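Troubleshooting log. The previous structure file for this entry was overwritten by mistake, so regenerating from the original sequence record. Sequence copied from the archived sheet and checked twice against the printout by T.R.
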Amino acid sequence: MRRVLILCTHNSARSQMAEGLVRAAAARLGVALDVHSAGTEATRVKPEAVAVMAELGVDLSGHTSKTLWDVPDAQRFDYVVTVCDSAAAGCPVYPAATQRRHYPFVDPSGGSLARWRAVRDQMKLQFDAFVQALQAGEAPPPGHLDSPAVPVA
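Regenerated output below.
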C-alpha cells in the first residue's frame, strides 16, 4: 500500500481537505492508499473546512490538527504533497524514494463559504488527477493544475 502525506502550515484547512479528498478519490477508484495530513504546527481543524467537505459527503468531523511528528512512521512516505508555500519551504528532507509534489492553494481562512468552496473545488480537481494517475500506474502531476480563480472574499 502506498503512503501519502499532505503538509500545510497549521493542518487546519487545506491539508485536512486534501486528506479527505485523496481518501474519497482512492475509495471511489479502488486505489489502496494510506493517507495522512500534518502541519508544521498544530492548531485546530476549521469548522468551515468540515462544512464544505460535508457538502461532498466527506466527513472531517473526527479529524484533529497534528504535526508531522504525530503521524505514524513520519519518514516513510511514497508521496509528500505540500499545499502551501510555507510548508514547501519548511518541509523536512525525505529519502530519495519519496516523491515530492507542491500543489499550492489559496488559504480560504477568513473568507466567505464561497471562497472555501472554490478552494475545495480546485483541490478536488488536483487530487482526483493525483489519484487517477496512481490508479493508471503513472506519476502524479508534477505541479499545480490550472483551475478557475478563487473569490477574494
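Residues 113-135 form the longest helix (23 residues). Archived copy saved in two places this time.
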